[in-house]
């Protein structure tokens, strides 16, 4: 524990004498050198001196960040922080990660303990996945699922979404008599808000918008906070153009499942920029929606090929339903997948009787191993049983891994809906 310059506010740091034992210790990345290549490419942050982190420094940053999250939570809730116990637990966690007995997710290795969490408090970037539903929104709020997906995607979070909002909103023609020009700020928020302005103009019928992109950094500039390289304004311009073209084709009609997925996929394509950001999406449709079933058939829909790859597509399946059409599609291109939402809501674990603890769930993450409620996020850790000599040692590792992942759930996001559901579930 050490005092910062900010009036007695405390900050956690691993003991320097402990870290000294690891500075020159070689890291066992494995995979005949490939592991180290991946680490230096994707997770070694650039330091202030212009060099990349070494493994011992990355682990130090991650562990310090994890325990600072716990410290902040305890201070904010008026609870005591046991510095001596925390130092002991942190050193155990450091050793477990350094020796590859468990690892935080790539999200954690990249973002934990950086400006994103320590200064901007963008804790959402520590989470792997989220889900949002398009159902149950009036026209004035129908932009929210799209805005959430773009916002989370730009923080590196994979997002699932459904098409339950199909037919619920009539697409309107924007008011072209009083067109407004909006200057886009060079930030994640600026990009996300630009999409919100476009969608509002079609879902509510507000003024037609055009944009001034002059404040956006040119292509190739280093991004100091998030990391990576600026893609310039081109991906955003392409997103704006694509979304407007799709909506213009459907003016005065109810929004369709295809239009929902088209917009979400275009967002995903836009987010894949620089050399750091990635995107993962899963679209959930209805099993009897023939339009949805054909979205990945680029013989029928060749115009979707440039962006249709941005999501895995699955349908909500029902026990005893007719699977013939779905099987034809699966035979053609491997999709859609099948999601039995009734089971997901009924069972916390399939080895136990139904308990309906997830009755509020409406979908899952892009890999669909995690049941999620609307606006919910989840994080993960990865453990390596083969790296342990005994079950007792593995249990100790699970303790550290559990501590890391639960600490991530303490970080508030900038979405009230998300904070509410995370506080209830704290999924890992």
Number-wise, the strands total 14
In DSSP terms (H or I, runs of 4 or more residues), the helix count works out at: 15
How far from one another are the termini?
28 Å
- Major β-sheet strand ordering: 10-9-8-5-4-13
Overall mean confidence score, pLDDT: 93
Largest β sheet strand count, sense and barrel closure: 6 strands, mixed
Strand residues, percent = 5-15%
- Secondary-structure element pattern, one letter each: EEHHHHEHHEHEEHEHHEHEHEHEEEEHH
Q: What coarse outline follows from CA principal-axis ratios?
A: globular
- Structural class comes to alpha/beta
Query: What value does the Rg take, in angstroms?
Result: 23 Å
Give the low-pLDDT segments. 1-9
Topology:
Layout: E1 2-3, E2 10-11, H1 16-20, H2 34-42, H3 55-76, H4 83-98, E3 102-103, H5 106-111, H6 115-118, E4 129-132, H7 144-154, E5 158-162, E6 175-183, H8 188-203, E7 207-212, H9 234-248, H10 257-271, E8 281-286, H11 290-293, E9 311-316, H12 324-333, E10 337-339, H13 341-346, E11 363-364, E12 371-372, E13 377-378, E14 382-383, H14 391-408, H15 416-425
Parallel strand pairs: 4-5, 5-8, 6-7, 8-9, 9-10
Antiparallel strand pairs: 1-2, 3-14, 4-13, 11-12
């Amino acid at each position: 524990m050490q005092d910062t310059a900010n009036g007695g506010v405390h900050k956690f740091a691993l003991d320097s004498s402990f870290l000294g034992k690891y500075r020159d210790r070689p890291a066992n990345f494995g995979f005949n050198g490939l592991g180290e290549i991946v680490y230096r490419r994707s997770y070694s942050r650039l330091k202030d001196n212009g060099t990349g982190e070494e493994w011992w420094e990355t682990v130090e940053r991650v562990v310090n960040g994890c325990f600072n999250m716990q410290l902040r939570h305890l201070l904010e809730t008026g609870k005591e922080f046991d510095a001596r116990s925390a130092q002991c637990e942190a050193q155990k966690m450091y050793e477990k990660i350094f020796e590859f007995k468990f690892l935080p997710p790539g999200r954690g290795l990249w973002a934990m303990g950086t400006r994103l969490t320590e200064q901007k408090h963008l804790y959402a970037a520590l989470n792997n996945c989220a889900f949002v539903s398009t159902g149950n929104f009036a026209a004035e709020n129908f932009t929210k699922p799209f805005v959430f997906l773009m916002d989370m995607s730009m923080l590196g979070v994979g997002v699932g979404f459904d098409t339950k909002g199909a037919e619920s909103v009539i697409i309107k023609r924007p008011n072209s008599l009083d067109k407004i020009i909006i200057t886009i700020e060079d930030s994640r928020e600026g990009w996300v808000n630009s999409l919100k302005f476009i969608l509002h103009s079609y879902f509510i019928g507000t003024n037609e918008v055009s944009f001034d992109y002059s404040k956006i950094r040119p292509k190739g500039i280093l991004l100091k906070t998030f990391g990576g390289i600026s893609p310039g304004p081109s991906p955003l311009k392409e997103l704006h153009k694509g979304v407007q073209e799709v909506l213009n084709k459907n003016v005065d009609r109810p929004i369709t499942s295809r239009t929902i997925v088209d917009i979400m996929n275009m967002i995903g394509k836009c987010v894949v920029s620089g050399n750091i950001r990635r995107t993962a999406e899963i679209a959930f449709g209805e099993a009897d929606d023939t339009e949805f079933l054909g979205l990945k058939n680029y013989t029928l829909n060749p115009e979707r090929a440039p962006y249709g790859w941005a999501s895995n597509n699955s349908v909500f399946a029902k026990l005893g339903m007719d699977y013939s059409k779905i099987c034809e599609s699966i035979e053609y291109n491997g999709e859609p997948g099948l999601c039995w939402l009734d089971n997901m809501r009924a069972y916390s674990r399939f080895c136990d009787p139904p308990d309906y603890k997830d009755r509020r769930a409406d979908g899952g993450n892009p890999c669909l191993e995690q049941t999620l409620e609307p606006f919910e996020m989840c994080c993960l850790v990865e453990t390596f049983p083969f790296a342990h000599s005994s079950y007792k040692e593995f249990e100790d590792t699970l303790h550290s891994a559990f501590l890391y992942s639960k600490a991530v759930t303490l970080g508030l996001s900038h979405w009230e809906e998300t904070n509410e559901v995370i506080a209830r579930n704290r999924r890992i």
